[in-house]
Amino acid sequence: MTTDNDKSESTIDLREQVRKGYAQIAVTGVLATATAPKGGGCCGTTDCCGGLSAEDLALQIGYSANEIRALPEGTNMGLSCGNPAAIAELKPGQVVLDLGSGGGFDVFLAGPKVGATGRVIGVDMTPEMLAKARKNTAQYRKTTGLDNVEFRLGEIEHLPVADESIDVVISNCVINLSPEKSQVWHEVARVLKPGGKVAASDMALLRPLPDTVRAMVEALVGCVAGAVMLEEYRQMVMAAGLTDVELRPKPEYVAALAEFKDPLYERIAASLPPGTTAADFLTSLDVMARKPQ
Question: pTM to 2 decimals?
Answer without folding.
Answer: 0.84
